[in-house]
Amino acid sequence: MKHLLTTSDLSHSQAMNILDTAEEMDQVSQREVKKLPTLRGRTVVNLFYEDSTRTRVSFEAAAKRLSADVVNFSAKGSSVSKGESLKDTVQTLDAMGADAIVIRHPAAGAAAQLAASDWTQAAVLNAGDGTHEHPTQALLDALTLRRGYAAARDTGSRGTDLSGLKVLIIGDVLHSRVARSNVWLLTTLGAKVSLVAPATLLPVGAETWPVTIHYDLDEALATDPDAVMMLRVQAERMGGAFFPTSAEYTRRWGLTDERLAVVESLRIGPSQAPAMILHPGPMNRGVEISAAAADSPQSVITEQVTHGVSVRMAVLHLLLSGRSET
Amino acid sequence: MNAYLITAAAPYGQQPVDILIRDGRIVSIGENITDDDAERVDAAGLIALPGMVDLHTHLREPGREDAETVDTGTRAAARGGFTAVHAMANSQPVADTAGVVEQVKRLGDDAGWSEVYPVGAVTRGLAGEQLAELGAMAASAAEVRMFSDDGHCVANPQLMRRALEYVSTVGGFIAQHAQDPDLTAWGTDYAAQMNEGIVSSALGLPGWPSVAEEAIIARDVLLADYVGARLHICHVSTAGSVEILKWAKSRDIQVTAEVTPHHLLLTDELVRSFDPVYKVNPPLRTERDTRVLREALAEGIIDVIGTDHAPHPTQAKECEWHQAAMGMTGLETALPAVTHAMISTGLMDWRRFAEVTSETPARIYGHTHQGRPLAEGEPANLILVDPGAVTTVRPEEHATKGQNSPYRGMELPGVVRATFLNGHQVVADGALTVSTTGRSA
C-alpha cells in the first residue's frame, strides 16, 4: 500500500491488517505515555482545503503519537487564497521534505490526482475529497463495529471481520463521502449493508452497489439491523430541493425518540448486546438524530472519535514505515 | 506553378487513378495521366478524399491567444485534413457582432492553412437573453450562415423559437448545444461534472443526466417543425438522443446532427482516473452510448462528424477536476479516431466517411466549393490518407497549442499524408509546407 485514496481497492487482508494494527495503536493510546518512536524524523503535512477541525486534530494527534513532525497547512490564510494552484502548493510541500501528505479537499479526486502526479513523492492520505470518499472515517467505523460485534460474541476483536453484521446507513448518501467509503469497506469485511434514504438523496447508479436499498426507515429497522449509522444532513440540502422541509426529513428518516425505542429492542446477532448507533459527526441534534439517541448507552459516537486516532496512527505507520528513508 | 499530378491515389478507397490539379481545380482524373510541368505526388497505397469540413471548432482568437490562435488552429486543421473549419462564437469578445466575425474571417484568410468560417452567437454575449445582431453578421463580409451559443444552451424556448424563425430568413440555421441548465445545475457550485450513472455514483461527482440533453433536443425538433426552420444539433452524446432524432427525421423535420470523435470512442470509465483531460461537455458517456452513436452515424441518423476541438492551456487541465476546463483537442486526431471507431470496425466505408466528414457538413452550411466530389472541374480541396499506417498520439508534436488530447499514448490507424487547399499543397508527407498566403511551417 503506497497511498490510501479509496476503500474500494482495499483487499480483505489489507483492511484487516489496518484494523489489527489499529488495535495495537489503541493500546498505545491507553498508556500514560501515549507515544511511539516509529516515525521520528518523518514529516506529515496536513493539507486542508476545507475547514475540518475534527479530522485535522485527529490526524495531528495520530502523527504526533508516532513521533512524526507535523506541519498544518490550511487553505485559508495561505497562498491558496491568492490563487496558487494545487500543483504548486504540493510541489512546495514536497520540496520541504513531506513524507506523507494528508489532504482534505472539496474537489472529488484531489487526493488521487496527487498520488498519480509527479508533483510529490510523499505518501498521500485521503482525508476526504468532495463527495467521493473518506477512507479513514470508514476504517474507524469498521473498527468500532467490529469491537462491538466481537464483544457481543465474547471473542477478541483482533482477527475478526464483520461477516454477517447487518448495518443500516441512513440519510444523505448522494453527498456523503462517508457512505461511499463505508459501503465498499464494510462489504469487503463481510457486512451486509443497507442504505435508507429518500430517492433524491441516493445517487443514480446506487442500484448497482452491493447493498440493499430502502426508502422507508421503519421497514429497514424491521429487518433487525445490528448497527445504524446516521449521516449528517447538510443545511444547504434543506431548502426544498431534495426534500420538502427539515421537519419532514426528521419524521421520515430521523432517528427520533420513537424510533430509538425500536432500536433499543434490537440486539447484535443472537447475543444480548444492544445494537450500535453510529454518527460520523458533527451531529445535527433534532434533525437526523434526537438528543436521546445521540446520548443513548447504545451510541458509540465517542468510541468512533477515539478509534479515529488509532486508525490514523495505523495507516500512517503502515504507509511510512514500509518506505525507505530518503 | 500550382500544378500537381497525384499518381495512383484511390478515391474513396476504390480503384487507384491519377489526379491532375491546376489553378485550384481538378483538371483531370483517370488512368495514366501525364503532365511534365506538374509536380508529381506519389500516392500509391493512399486514399484520396475530399478535404474534411469541421462545423465545430474552437479557435480561441480573439481573447484566448494563449490557448490557440486562428493561425495555430488552422495549422492543426490542415494537418488533420480539414480544408474548412467553422469557428465557434465563444471568443472574448464573443462573436456576436459583424466586427468580430469579420476579424475572425480575416485572420483565417491571412493564415491560409484552412478556410475559416466564423459562427455567430445566437444571443448577445452568449447570455441567452437577447438575440445578437444576426442579420448584421449574415450581411457582413464573413457572410455568417451558422449561429450557435455553443458552450451554452439556448435554454429559453421562446428565444429559441424566435432565433430559428429569424435566422431562417437569411438562409441560416441554429446549431444548438443541447443541455438543460437546470437539470445540470449549470452555473452553480453543484454543476454537473460527468455523465450521471454507475461511475458518477462511485466517484461522487455531480452527474450530467442524459435526459438534460434529450429534453432539449425533443423540444427543439418540435420547435423547428412548428416554425419550419433548420436546426443542427451539436455533439450528440446519448443513445436516447438518437431515438429522438430518428423520430424527427421520420417526420421530415429539418434537423441535422453531429457527433464528436471522442463520443464515438471514449467512455466515462476514463473519469475514474480523475485526469481532467477527460473532462468535456457534454461528458463522455457509457459504452452503450458509444455503440448506439456509431450505428447512428453509419445509418445516417447522425449526419456529420464535428471535432469540438477545444484547446486549453496546460494549467487549465493541471488542476482539480471541478476547476478544470471542459474540452479536448480534436483536429489532428479526428481522422485516426473515426477510422478506428468506424472503418476498422467495418461500420462504414471510405465513401460514407467522405459524406460524414466533408460532403454533408459542407451541404449543411451551404458551401458550394467544399465537400465536392473528386471529379473533373471540381475545386481541388482534397486529402491523401494512408489508411494502414498506425501512429502513437503525441500531443507535443501537434500543431495546435492545446496539449489536452485524450488520446495521448494511444495507437490509432490512419494518417493524413497530404492536404490540398484550393489547389495548394499545404501538407506534404504529413508535415505543413507553405500556406496559400506564403506562411511557412
What percent of residues of chain A are in strands? 5-15%
Multimerization status:
heterodimer
Question: Helical segment tally of chain B?
Answer: 11
Overall CATH architecture of the largest domain in chain B: Alpha-Beta Barrel
Number of strands of chain A: 9
- What structural category characterises the helix and strand content of chain B? alpha/beta
Spatial strand order of the main sheet of chain A: 7-6-5-8-9
The radius of gyration of chain B is 21 Å
What is the residue-mean pLDDT of chain A, rounded to a whole number? 94
Which stretches of chain A of 5+ consecutive residues score pLDDT under 50? none
Topology, number of strands of chain B:
19
CATH architecture of the largest domain in chain A: 3-Layer(aba) Sandwich
State the separation between the terminal residues of chain A, measured CA to CA.
18 Å
CATH fold-type name of the largest domain in chain B: TIM Barrel
Structural class based on helices, strands and sheet pairing of chain A: alpha/beta
CATH class of the largest domain in chain B: Alpha Beta
Task: Report low-confidence residues of chain B grouped into runs of 5 or more.
Answer: none
CATH topology of the largest domain in chain A: Rossmann fold
Envelope shape of chain B: globular
- State the separation between the terminal residues of chain B, measured CA to CA: 20 Å
What does it look like?
The complex is a heterodimer of chains A (326) and B (441). Chain A is α/β, with parallel strands linked by helices. Chain A has two domains: 12-133 and 308-321, Aspartate/ornithine carbamoyltransferase (Rossmann fold, 3-Layer(aba) Sandwich), CATH 3.40.50.1370; 135-305, 3-Layer(aba) Sandwich (Rossmann fold). In chain A, 38% of the residues lie in helices and 14% in strands. Chain A is built from eleven helices and nine strands. Chain A has helices at 12-30, 53-65, 86-95, 110-116, 135-152, 177-188, 217-221, 246-253, 257-264, 291-294, 301-321; strands at 43-48, 69-74, 100-105, 123-129, 166-170, 192-196, 212-214, 227-230, 276-278. The longest helix of chain A is centred in the last third of the chain and has 21 residues, at 301-321. Chain B is an alpha/beta fold and 441 residues long. Chain B has two domains: 3-47 and 377-432, Urease, subunit C, domain 1, CATH 2.30.40; 52-365, Metal-dependent hydrolases (TIM Barrel), CATH 3.20.20.140. Chain B has helices at residues 70-80, 98-111, 134-139, 157-168, 198-203, 210-227, 239-250, 261-265, 287-299, 334-343, 350-365; strands at residues 3-11, 17-22, 25-30, 39-42, 47-50, 52-57, 82-87, 115-118, 146-147, 173-176, 194-195, 207-208, 231-233, 255-259, 304-305, 382-392, 411-421, 424-428, 431-432. In chain B, strands 1, 2, 3, 4, 5, 16, 17, 18 and 19 form a nine-stranded mixed β-sheet that branches. Chain B has a five-stranded parallel β-sheet with strand order 9-10-13-14-15. Chain B has a three-stranded parallel β-sheet with strand order 6-7-8. In chain B, a hairpin with a 2-residue loop joins strand 18 (424-428) and strand 19. In chain B, helix 4 crosses helix 6 and helix 6 (210-227) packs parallel to helix 7. The longest helix of chain B has 18 residues, at 210-227. The radius of gyration of chain B is 21 Å and the shape is globular.
